Amino acid sequence: KKVMAELMALAKENLPESAFLSLLADVPANKLYAQFGFEETAPESLGMFCRIRSD
Prior knowledge:
mainly alpha; 2 helices; single chain; 35% helix
């Protein structure tokens, strides 16, 4: 939680007001991020990933 508070302080000090921060969160970490103002975006938008393996 302390690291997140520091990151948010840096963002608020250094990014323009028009900046848009996004992140991917695993449950239950989404509850932590919500404490800092992050909101779930589904169903309007979804986080996605593609894992590439070179086996």
